[in-house]
Amino acid sequence: MQTIIAKDKQRLGQEAARAGAELIRRSVQQRGRANIIVATGASQFEMLAALAEEKDVPWNAVTAFHLDEYVGMPITHPASFRLYLWERFHRRLPLPLHAFHYIDGEADPQAECRRLGAIIKHQPIDVAFIGIGENGHVAFNDPPANFKTDKAYIVVELDEACRRQQLGEGWFPSFEAVPKQAISMSCRQILKSGSIICSVPDERKARAVQGAVEGPVTADVPASILQQHSDLTLYLDPASASLLKKK
Questions:
Q1: How many CA atoms, within 13 angstroms, populate the side-chain half-sphere of residue 122?
Q2: Strand order across the 153-157 sheet
Q3: What is the DSSP string of 8-58?
Q4: I need a labelling partner for 175 at 20 to 30 A (CA). Which of 63, 80, 118, 207 fits?
């Protein structure tokens, strides 16, 4: 795991996007195509904006996969991650993507997991753009996360800390309105990615970052499993890196 501490959140997003765009260009140059994972949430605002503005990225040779979505969530809801990705990333690209495999929150959850699992099985991921939650989750794999399943997508229960984060970021009007379940890419599937770009700004993520980077690999800090990946770069700002002993 390589850790890069940018001077602020804006620079963090720019540096992460620049590195990720170069990996996409390289994959297309070598294989004629690239497959990516795209995350959501407030921590990804700057990175996604910068990624969409990167020059000379052959987006028409890129297939994107959606990381997670709430069960029962219509695309018209302000908190829909499908809506988020369309507005903040997909529609801003200068070229149309080859494909974008969104998670349909309104579909039968288990059937949707099987559908997406069958697709991603034959399209290995070159670059995963992800974040880390306040409770240490990756995607919606809340603690204690399932580190064993080989399924690509799973239905998960959202813990209280995760739901309160969604409320605190302004996605929902009340805690009771935050869904209790989601469809999430599994931890093992994320680890299959060739490269991982992990963007984690803000002081509220500092404790989770410390556990993920300097603690043991444990299901109680799901992001700690990222220590097992051979090509992961963690992009932090001074606030999110504030509790790290080694900087």
A1: 4
A2: 68-70, 181-185, 153-157
A3: SHHHHHHHHHHHHHHHHHHHHHHHS-EEEEE--SGGGHHHHHHHHH-TT--
A4: 207
Q: Report pLDDT digits (tens) over 152-190.
A: 999 999 999 889 988 988 889 999 999 999 999 999 999
The residue type at 196: I
Question: Is-above-0.90 flag for pTM?
Answer: yes
Question: CA 243 to CA 230: how far, in whole Å?
Answer: 24
Residue 220 placed within a domain? yes
Residue 101, Cα to own-chain centre: how many angstroms? 14
Looking at residue 139, what DSSP letter applies?
T
- Report residue 108: phi and psi, to 5°: -60, 125
CA distance 156 to 147: 13
pLDDT tens digits, residue range 56-82? 999 999 999 999 999 999 999 999 999
Instruction: Judge whether 186 lies within some domain.
Output: yes
3-state SS class at 128: strand
48 — phi, psi (to 5°)? -65, -40
Answer whether residue 241 is part of any domain: no
Q: Residue 197 belongs to what domain range? A: 2-236
C-alpha span between 204 and 218 (Å, rounded):
20
Q: List all residues 6 or more positions away from 143 whose beta carbon is below 8 Å from its beta carbon.
A: 135, 136, 137, 159, 219, 220, 221, 222
Q: Among 192, 183, 202, which Cα is nearest to 105's?
A: 183
